[in-house]
Write a structure and sequence with these properties.
Elements (H helix, E strand, L loop, with lengths): L1 E3 L5 H18 L9 H13 L3 E7 L4 E14 L2 E14 L8 H15 L4 E4 L6 H9 L14
Parallel strand pairs: 4-5
Antiparallel strand pairs: 1-2, 2-3, 3-4
Length: 153
């Protein structure tokens, strides 16, 4: 079942967030490092308290095994047409629960949320080297919108 997270979910979300960040450290050690343990719980508390963010969780009845942190962004500037974007800030499924349709279910709820809120798209950022995540998002119908490039020294 997909639902909106609450403060009672903080401990499990912290564990999932830590697992996701550990994965980022493994695949991009030149960019990511592991902060102190308490940072994760503080960050999850901040996210849950932020009125502009929604946290969708997959609750299997015994545990939370996936989540997405989402924000509706109003784009309205002189050089761009006004629109709303459903932006996924963070998306994770517990490593031992992947390939069971949980991510697809969470993404479906996020997509529905975006449509219900008048958004024209769902957007997110993902590291190109995170091939599993890129493949998952492509399977959900996402296409590259911009390409960030870098020259490392």
């Amino acid at each position: 079942m997909i639902r909106i997270a609450n403060n009672c979910d903080c401990k499990r979300l912290t564990a999932l967030f830590t697992e996701l960040h550990r994965h980022h450290v493994e695949i991009k050690p030149e960019t990511f490092r592991m902060p102190e343990r308490e940072w994760f719980s503080r960050r999850i508390s901040e996210i849950l308290d932020d009125g502009e963010l929604k946290v969708f969780v997959h609750d299997n009845g015994d545990d939370i095994d996936g989540y997405a942190v989402v924000k509706i962004m109003d784009i309205n500037s002189e050089e761009q047409f006004p629109r709303k974007v459903c932006y996924i800030d963070c998306f994770a499924v517990a490593e031992n629960c992947r390939r069971k349709g949980i991510g697809t279910e969470i993404f479906g709820a996020v997509k529905k949320f975006g449509i219900e809120n008048g958004c024209t798209s769902v957007q997110l950022g993902v590291s190109a080297c995170n091939r599993g995540a890129v493949a998952f998002y492509e399977k959900q119908g996402l296409l590259p919108r911009t390409v960030q490039m870098e020259l490392r020294f």
